[in-house]
Amino acid sequence: MGRWLVLGGTRFLSQAVAAAAVARGHEVICAARGESGMPPEGARLVKVDRDTEDALAPLRGEQFDAVVDVAFISYRWVREALAELGEKAGHWTFVSTMSVYADLSRRGGGVDDPVREPRYTDPTDPEDFGAYGQIKVASEQAVMEAVGDRALVVRPGLVCGPDDEADRFGYWPARFARGGRAVVPDAPDQPCQIIDVRDLAEWIVLAGEQGITGTFDTCGPPTTLGTVLDEIATAVGAADLERVPVSPEELGAAGIMPWQGPRSLPLWLPDILWGVVDRDTAPALAAGLRCRPIAETALAALETERALGTDRERQAGLTAAEEAELLDGR
Ligand SMILES: NC(=O)c1ccc[n+]([C@@H]2O[C@H](COP(=O)([O-])OP(=O)(O)OC[C@H]3O[C@@H](n4cnc5c(N)ncnc54)[C@H](OP(=O)(O)O)[C@@H]3O)[C@@H](O)[C@H]2O)c1
């Protein structure tokens, strides 16, 4: 069994990677501050704060069979980790994003699609996410330059499931489980692709074990928004749930935002962004990525929603009052 380092490991995807590696019998070290949470049982936390100088000194000289870095929006973090640990690492996974692509309207694209201009400077404001895709491009480049012969770059789309605190996918299981009349975008044929955090984590561990290298778009098989909402409704919808389709034009006129943010309908996207939810994931599937049915993701997301409190102020979705406004007269 191998020695794994997860840079992160205390929340969501990186925590799921650590858990999957522990389940496979590996020795797992998570390097994080321990502020978001704790590593899963069986993994060890080494406290590091990557915002500080010489942050990875506690890991100096260590050798790992596999390293997984989920650095969200920092080129500096990625370079420092590579400089400190890259030479001795057996395999290196960098978690990137779909947001690297220059043209997010193109459907059915793959990893050879043109990417955005790289940006090598980190934002000074931690709330500034505008350069997300460009910093990921620069980070991917740094990984390929330093450890390209051993590197796996994964570009996920929407990651969903247990412990997802982003409020996007979880809006739908929570809303459908509440029942009654629920506004849905009248866009059943819109492309849609999601990935369960557990499936992505298990594949990252498999890839590390098997030495899989290269760049992969990592989402579930392409489907439609209508199918995803049907599957969520079947899995967790209340008996009195009635879905009320509202056209994208009417939603737009009412100031409802697609995808995320307050006053939004998650998973709904304008066609200029359909490339985000219609990627060619056949190469990842051929390399062993297995995706569970959406119903299982919906059940786990609902559990997380209930643990977080379904009456909390959400980062994405409609409030009951906003929904009632839209339903008025329908
Ligand atoms: N969610 C999605 O739908 C989606 C889609 C595409 C791509 N992605 C990518 O997937 C990855 C998500 O990673 P994730 O789920 O593990 O969540 P995350 O919110 O990116 O957190 C990752 C880890 O970073 C650690 N961290 C934060 N600040 C730190 C610091 N100053 N020093 C050391 N560690 C620090 C956190 O631990 P502590 O706070 O305990 O230090 C946590 O364990 C990201 O790379 C993201 O870009 C996500």
Automatic annotation (TrEMBL):
Residues 4-210 form the NAD-dependent epimerase/dehydratase domain. GO terms for cellular component: cytoplasm. GO terms for molecular function: aldehyde dehydrogenase (NAD+) activity. Residues 310-330 are annotated as: Disordered. SUPFAM superfamilies: NAD(P)-binding Rossmann-fold domains. InterPro entries: Epimerase_deHydtase (IPR001509), NAD(P)-bd_dom_sf (IPR036291), NAD(P)-dependent_oxidoreduct (IPR051783). It holds the Pfam family Epimerase. PANTHER family: NAD(P)-BINDING DOMAIN-CONTAINING PROTEIN-RELATED (PTHR48079:SF6), PROTEIN YEEZ (PTHR48079). This is Nucleoside-diphosphate-sugar epimerase. It comes from Saccharothrix carnea. The lineage of its organism: Bacteria, Bacillati, Actinomycetota, Actinomycetes, Pseudonocardiales.
